[in-house]
Specification:
This protein has 311 residues and is an all-alpha fold. It has one domain: Orthogonal Bundle (Farnesyl Diphosphate Synthase), CATH 1.10.600. Helices cover 77% and strands 0% of the residues. The chain contains 14 helices and no strands. The longest helix is centred in the last third of the chain and has 29 residues. The chain is globular. The N terminus is likely disordered.
């Protein structure tokens, strides 16, 4: 939580330099703590990088820059969304730097801009194509949340845009390896599919606030049961990526077997949550375990590729 006294913007400008620095550092820590789940995007980028390189890292600064860039991109995106999502978060009782009530909007805006800028610089420092992918991600972030476009209020488009963000950070990992790879392309599709699992689960949890805000989400339009079927279809789509990688790119059957185990676990979690989808805590636990599976799938793909000698 953001434990800062709420004062006017001009007040902290009159503080001594040391106190002002401490204030901004405290704000930075609070912003990071407010959105701890954005690590999934960094994990996706690093996962694809490891898949393409076969776990061989020749320049340790590359995955470091990649991970920080992807993390800051995602953090800036979620903070920008919090700025535009204040009323809905209050209804859904979601703790963000805004809905907690003591956030300083000016500081949040400055940090959000800084995160976008730093992440883009880091991406371009790796290579041109990684930088272009990061710019694509930033563009989607603005289109998703900006009041004039507001893609987050559009049925299916909302989840597709989020998934596209996962795909782009995956491609950042692919390009960071030094070039294009079909294996990297398939590995980047995995995060895209995952957001058609995480998205509907989050929408089910947020139905009340989304209805009051007039949003068109999966459970509101097609119902909870059909929304859960979308998550099941997405899991089978992830499984098909393993099968395609085996049949076309020749990854080892060991990787496919590991992929079957991970997707089987995800199906069991969906089956469990379908019986108590009105329990928000259970939905959160389910989404948390699904996030871990993003990296598990990519590791499985990497193992299959290494055994087959593809990288």
């Amino acid at each position: 939580m953001w434990r800062l006294e709420s004062t006017a913007a001009c007040e902290y400008q009159r503080r001594p330099a040391g106190a002002t620095i401490r204030l901004w550092l405290a704000a930075l820590v609070s912003l990071i703590r407010s959105r701890t789940l954005v690590y999934a995007f960094a994990v996706s980028a690093l996962g694809v990088y490891l898949v393409v390189t076969g776990g061989k890292v020749t320049d340790i600064t590359v995955p470091i820059r990649l991970g920080i860039s992807a993390y800051l991109l995602a953090l800036a995106t979620y903070l920008y969304n919090d700025i535009t999502d204040y009323k809905t978060d209050l209804v859904n009782k979601r703790a963000t730097v805004y809905s907690l009530g003591d956030a300083r909007q000016r500081m949040t805006r400055y940090y959000t801009l800084a995160f976008f800028a730093i992440s883009t610089i880091l991406a371009f420092s790796i290579n041109y194509y990684t930088g272009i992918a990061s710019l694509g991600f930033s563009s989607l972030a603005v289109l998703y949340s900006h009041p004039r476009t507001n893609l987050k209020s559009m049925f299916v488009v909302k989840t597709a845009v989020t998934g596209a963000g996962g795909f782009l950070v995956g491609m950042m990992g692919c390009f960071s390896s030094g070039g294009f790879s079909y294996l990297g392309l398939l590995a980047s599709v995995i995060p895209f599919c995952f957001y058609f699992i995480l998205g509907p689960l989050g929408d089910i949890s947020d139905m009340k606030g989304d209805k009051e805000d007039g949003r068109r989400t999966f459970p509101i339009i097609i119902g909870v049961k059909k929304s859960l079927l979308v998550t099941v279809a997405s899991i089978f789509a992830i499984l098909s990526i393993f099968l395609i990688s085996n049949m076309i790119l020749g990854i080892s059957a060991v990787g496919v077997g590991l992929g079957i185990i991970v997707t089987g676990f995800m199906l069991s979690r969906i089956a469990s949550v379908s019986k108590k989808y009105q329990d928000k805590n259970e939905l959160r636990r389910c989404r948390r375990s699904i996030r871990y599976c993003i990296f598990a799938c990519q590791v499985s793909l990497m193992i299959g590729a290494i055994i087959a000698g593809i990288p």
